[in-house]
Amino acid sequence: MYAFTYERPASRDAALQLVRAGGKPIAGGQTLLPSMRLRLAAPEQLVDLAALPELAGIRREGDQLVIGAMTRHHQVAESDAVRAAIPALAHMAQLIGDRQVRARGTLGGSVANNDPAADYPAAVLGLGATVQTDRRSIAADDFFQGLFATALEDDELICEIRFPIPQRAAYVKFRQPASRFALIGVFVAQTAGGVRVAVTGGGNGVFRHTAMEQALSSSFSPEAIANVATDENEMSSDLHGSSAYRAHLVGVMARRAVEQALA
């Protein structure tokens, strides 16, 4: 490691003051700390958000499920409120990493990092959620902007995420066996505003599959998307899978997600 200062503020206002002065916020540290060890990130000051209870918690408000940014993955997976309102979201949280990662990682940290193979971005985009920061509300369709890129300003903090409760939803992923990230993950949701299909692991970041959304809007069934293709030219290719393989997996995972949503 290298020399840096560490702050653990006791209030959101104190945390915001440090971040606006140039401090780097750290939530669960599951991405930032490994990046620092590899010298891919070198913040001069860390601002630990773990002591801010107002940034954690799960509650239902009308037709929305509101989850604080510092809520741990295992808390989402084990929450009775999440299981009752959006069981697909609890199921997704249970699939993240391993037990240690789920005990430390946070919803807000994952969404802010926007890893192209992360799970939570697919739920946020697939459900049409709203990201609430310390200064504004950002619709999911506007939030994710490509590889590790979001609409967040450098000194902006995610406070909570508001998930509309869908009529039905499901998430299915094909795991990369070592990292347990999604080689391909597909979140399918039938909502009051229509069908949404979000894909993670396939390219430069999470994206909506509009062709599948249109097909499922006509008939919410696995058969409706059986012949809907995914452009392999839009998929990434690496030692874990070619772009053609990933494109094929999108269709397979999407059909399984619809089957699961209907079960």
TrEMBL record:
Q: Name one Pfam family in it.
A: FAD_binding_5
- InterPro entries xrefs: CO_DH_flav_C, CO_DH_flav_C_dom_sf, Diverse_Substr_Oxidored, FAD-bd_PCMH, FAD-bd_PCMH-like_sf, FAD-bd_PCMH_sub1, FAD-bd_PCMH_sub2, Mopterin_DH_FAD-bd
| Start and end residues of each FAD-binding PCMH-type domain | 1-168
Protein origin, superkingdom: Bacteria
User: What keywords appear on the UniProt entry?
Assistant: FAD, Flavoprotein, Oxidoreductase
Whether Flavoprotein counts among this entry's keywords is yes
PROSITE patterns named among the record's database cross-references: FAD_PCMH (PS51387)
For molecular function, the Gene Ontology terms on record are: FAD binding; oxidoreductase activity
Any idea what this protein is called? Carbon monoxide dehydrogenase
Native organism: Melaminivora suipulveris
The organism's lineage is: Bacteria, Pseudomonadati, Pseudomonadota, Betaproteobacteria, Burkholderiales
